[in-house]
Amino acid sequence: MSKYVSKPMDDNGQIAWSESEHTVWHKLVTRQLSCIKGKACQEYFDGLDMLSLPTDNAPQVSDINRVLMQSTGWQLEAVPALIDFDKFFALLADRKFPVATFLRTEDDFDYLQEPDFFHEVFGHCAMLTHPAFASFTHHYGKLGLNASKAERVYLARLYWFTVEFGLIENASGRSIYGGGILSSPAETEYAFASSEPVRKRLDVLDVMRTPYRIDILQPLYYCLESLDELYELEKMDLIACVRRAMALGLHAPLYPEKYPQKIAQ
Q1: Cα(first)–Cα(last) distance of the chain, in Å?
Q2: pLDDT tens digit string along 113-149?
Q3: What's the rounded Cα separation, in Å, for the pair 67 and 76?
Q4: In three state form, how does the secondary structure of 176-238 look?
């Protein structure tokens, strides 16, 4: 059960942010802008320029929606802190990106397990101005809408290792496009520079068979050569890939169990 409650948004897309929330936004965005310098992909920075997100106060959904509609036809949809998969996929299939309208407090400044307004806006919205990223996310929503509950579990891994934790690696070097990395200072430094995590060329079947945990720095990242590869993913029969992955089973995880089983004495 979340301790956070989304704030109401009026008919004009305005949220009555408090002074303390403006302060938190300012601290979060200025810290992360410094952290991602030279690490995020150019497409992300291009999107940030288009959005012109304020640094002194929390932005308004209506201002972001104006830019998204003009660039790729997407809109943000205000939602409660947590939504179910049916709602999530339905929104993406309608080119609406779900955004919980609450900001973390100072107590959770460095890490919050559930996605808040900062994560969704700073992490994802700049990328949603990019045609390939926006198209793939829309396609993913349509796939998930028609998938079974079991198939959605495998599809979720594709989203996790691209939209949330994707890297680009090519002759020009390494850069970040995943929102789960871009909104986290610890994950940004770790994913970009650390020698600890494994980095692999993205293979859809491999991705769908890779388990993950949401509460740790990722031990494995999958890399594209360019964002245009997301168009190529759309051309694949991804549900057939899901069924193949289900038949093959999961890879062994690269992380310890969260709750190790006790050995009977």
Answers
A1: 35
A2: 889 999 999 999 999 999 999 999 999 999 999 999 9
A3: 11
A4: ECCHHHHCCHHHHHHHHHCCCCEEEECCHHHHHCCCCCCCCCCCEEEEECCCCHHHHHHHCCH
**What is the per-residue pLDDT for 1?**
61
CA distance 30 to 185: 11
Residue 259 is predicted with a pLDDT of: 58
The amino acid sitting at 114 is E
Tokens representing 82? 């947590």
**Separation CA 112–CA 215 (nearest Å):** 9
Nearest Cα to Cα of residue 151 among 244, 231, 87: 244
Residue with tokens 């993406």: 92
- Name residues of the chain where pLDDT drops below 50: 261-265
